TrEMBL record, chains A, B:
It comes from the Bacteria. This is Rossmann-like and DUF2520 domain-containing protein. Residues 4-86 form the Pyrroline-5-carboxylate reductase catalytic N-terminal domain. It comes from Hyunsoonleella rubra. Residues 122-246 form the DUF2520 domain. InterPro entries: 6-PGluconate_DH-like_C_sf, DUF2520, NAD(P)-bd_dom_sf, P5C_Rdtase_cat_N, TM1727-like_C_sf. It holds the Pfam family DUF2520. PANTHER family: CONSERVED HYPOTHETICAL ALANINE AND LEUCINE RICH PROTEIN (PTHR40459).
Length: 260, 260
């Protein structure tokens, strides 16, 4: 049985609470949050506190606080030489106070409080300073049902950057499509099956192989029509830049071999 | 029973063949293709031809040829006053020869020969010149199991443009993520659950509400780190431009209310 104390109650903290609460191999010692109100509804399920000095002994302390609060909170912890991890994709492991054994437990998933998620779809990227701590964190992740990947700092930072492209930037592509369909009284809903299929395709095929469309085919007539339809200069800039990027990616594929 | 003759054997043509072949309410009269070899393996299932002068009478002729061939092929058809439709998102309905009754039967989906698709996930956008023809095309689409949407030319062009954003441009976001993870010896596979979840989220939530991440939170420290990690100038340009677009979209949301 691995004992865990959770700090923070944002999206990651709340999802981790639920996963730990469900797991039979992990016990949640305490849940700390700066504002006790936001976790008070859980007080019958776990010991809650807003007083950092009352934290008891646990195998792992998981900091799910905001990036900028990680250094501060880790030095305020009233003990040393215990395993303390943060969950951020782009924060250095050395931001954690060096009085602790340190690690990173980074969930590669988009977690919103409002959306349920199956933890088998939450790969955990684990980084530790001591090898021994890796094994404990791996057991913890597996106990929550998560796939596990050992990473170093460089790999984690690159994964976080890549996640911005496939999550935030992709979502902004959806947003722009929403804007332009709404402005012409058509329905964004019609695009939803295409959105799912585009994501599904790259589960078994490389994005390189999955590409189609006017940019890839070099269909200048359609590209010109599209640019004329776009009303915002910024949308035209995005259209031009990503079209160029697609053409550069596929520049070595003869046009005649490109799928329509 | 609706009788259909199919022209062209690319991605759309091949998927339509399969859907029509499966449907009990639609009969496939003939399948024409310029090159008979590419459809010769289907000759036991349907009457195939590469001679346009041999086309027999059918209720609908569906042109799935390339955008640039639509006008030509439609004028070569050896009859008039029958219903002829094309399947292109961005080609004018008037590109079809005016000797025909004309329509557009545009599937809003990414169809690759190699990937199976359920036609319930292929919304058909229908445009016709005569109202009566709309009802026949609607019956045809419903017989294939497709959702149906009546559109005018402007709406269809906008939907095609929006489809480029959610399909081709999104796929290029995946491609860039693939490139940067590969270059650092990490695994693109780790991103696959996040790709699915990002697509799944906007099935019930607007892309505006679903947005998260450093651009949205105005986390300049992380944005700077990410830009330093990107090696290609073009990737930096894309990062900057889409980050700006996200910030403009959410400019009216106070930073403190933005989700992490």
């Amino acid at each position: 049985m691995i004992s865990v104390t959770l700090l923070g109650a944002g999206n990651v903290g709340t999802h981790l609470f639920k996963a730990i609460h469900k797991s039979k191999q992990v016990s949640l010692k305490q849940w700390y949050n700066r504002s006790i109100e936001s976790i008070s509804s859980y007080k019958n399920k776990v010991s809650i506190t807003d007083d950092i000095s009352t934290l008891e002994e646990a195998d792992v302390y998981i900091l799910t606080v905001s990036d900028d609060a990680i250094a501060d909170i880790s030095s305020q912890l009233p003990f040393e030489n215990r395993l303390v991890v943060h969950t951020a994709g782009s924060v250095n492991i050395h931001n954690l106070d060096k009085k602790h054994k340190r690690g990173v437990f980074y969930p590669m998933q988009s977690l919103s409080k409002s959306a349920e998620i199956d933890f088998k779809d939450v790969p955990i990227c684990i980084e530790t300073i001591d090898k021994a701590d890796y094994h404990l964190l791996k057991s913890l992740a597996l106990s929550l049902g998560c796939p596990v990947k050992k990473v170093n700092s460089d790999q984690r930072h690159v994964l976080h950057l890549a996640a911005v492209f496939v999550n935030n930037f992709t979502n902004q592509m959806y947003r722009i499509a929403h804007e332009i369909t709404e402005s012409e009284a058509t329905e964004f809903d019609l695009l939803k099956p295409l959105i799912m299929e585009t994501a599904r395709k790259v589960q078994d095929m490389s994005p390189y192989m999955a590409q189609t469309g006017p940019a890839m085919r070099g269909n200048l007539k359609t590209i010109k029509k599209h640019l004329a339809l776009l009303k915002k200069e910024q949308h035209k800039d995005i259209y031009n830049l990503i079209t160029q990027s697609i053409q550069d990616t596929h520049a070595s594929t003869p046009l005649s071999n490109r799928k329509s």
